[in-house]
UniProtKB/TrEMBL annotation:
Protein family according to the UniProt entry: Belongs to the ABC transporter superfamily.
Keywords: ATP-binding, Nucleotide-binding, Transport
Stored Gene3D superfamilies: P-loop containing nucleotide triphosphate hydrolases (3.40.50.300)
Residues forming coiled coils: none
The protein's name: ABC-2 type transport system ATP-binding protein
UniProt-listed SMART domains: AAA
UniProt-recorded Gene Ontology molecular function terms: ATP binding
Domain ABC transporter as annotated: residue spans: 6-234
Cited InterPro entries: AAA+_ATPase, ABC_transporter-like_ATP-bd, ABC_transporter-like_CS, P-loop_NTPase
Length: 307
């Protein structure tokens, strides 16, 4: 039986300005890489702050590693690494000095641990440079290094690739894959780069306006995914889409925000579709089959898919 690392039941948080979490129920099991998906203000960071003990819920219950009492939760949090919002770093210190400070805070006596995590996040050559001179991406990686100092069993990361260039994003993904696959670390990750999150997570929770509206595994997501036909044309997209709706007798043809025309592959004769476009002298700049991504799935789930 797989142990439950985090569990919430009816968890709510209200502020004078409104409800941040509304009767949230979810669980994360040991070994999960859990992708937390939602728009700004949906409640992702609020939940992570509750897990970290930075915010107290208004109602409901929460358990970490099966522990629920105040004293036991404090002890359980020592087994967790956090990067919530921006990392708290001292700008007048270099990377090793910052890590040394946090080692003292966490009670870590392993003198080599700072160098280990710096190498893991690719900052082992940062040297004496003060963190106040770091780029946003460098600060983010150092924040991940701080989160790894205590060799956590559960890692909670809020936008861990924020500010990283494409190479840095890939590097962080490899770090997290190593932690998950080689060390068995359980991960809770929120990210606005959903294409990247889709490469990591094996389970997703979709939150909207404080409510967890669905949980789904990566395998289930693939099973529910439709293959879509995506057409790019220099002709007016609205006119082409309407022609296709009439000729193919389909009401599920839409225009994406990028201006491309999209329709489900199921039930479409590709030869007839191409012949139609040629006969109507419609220039085709691009024609491809794509499976819906995580972003599209979420937008469809909350009713914002552009249909």
């Amino acid at each position: 039986m797989t142990a439950t690392v985090f569990e919430a039941e009816g968890l709510s948080k209200e502020y004078p300005s409104g409800v941040a979490l509304d009767q949230l129920c979810m669980s994360i099991e040991a070994g999960d890489v859990y992708g937390f998906v939602g728009e700004n203000g949906a409640g992702k960071t609020t939940l992570m702050r509750i897990i970290g003990g930075l915010v107290h819920p208004t109602a409901g219950r929460m358990a970490l590693f099966g522990e629920q009492s105040k004293e036991r939760l404090a002890s359980a949090r020592r087994r967790i690494g956090f990067l919530i919002e921006r990392p708290s770093l001292y700008p007048h210190m270099n990377a090793m000095e910052n890590l040394g400070f946090y080692c003292r805070i966490f009670g870590i006596r392993d003198r080599g641990r700072g160098a280990e995590v710096l190498k893991l996040v690719g900052l082992d050559e940062a040297g004496p440079k003060k963190t106040g001179e770091y780029s946003l991406g460098m600060r983010q990686r150092l924040g991940i290094a701080v989160a790894l100092l205590n060799r956590p069993e559960f890692l909670v990361l809020d936008e861990p690739v924020n500010g990283l260039d494409p190479a840095g994003i890939v590097e962080v993904r490899h770090i997290l894959e190593h932690l998950s696959h080689e060390q068995g670390v359980t991960l809770l990750i929120s990210s606005h780069i959903l294409s990247e999150l889709q490469l990591l997570a094996g389970k997703y929770g979709f939150i909207h306006q404080g409510r967890l509206i669905q949980e789904i595994s990566a395998a289930e997501l693939q099973q529910t995914a439709q293959v879509m036909i995506c057409i790019s044309t220099s002709s007016p997209a609205a006119a082409v889409a309407e022609m296709l709706r009439q000729e193919l007798r389909r009401g599920d043809i839409r225009i994406k925000q990028t201006g491309e025309i999209e329709l489900p592959r199921s039930g479409v004769d590709l030869e007839r579709l191409m012949s139609l476009l040629v006969q109507r002298e419609i220039p085709v700049d691009g024609f491809q089959l794509t499976a819906p991504n995580l972003e599209q799935y979420y937008m469809d789930l909350i009713g914002g898919g552009g249909r």
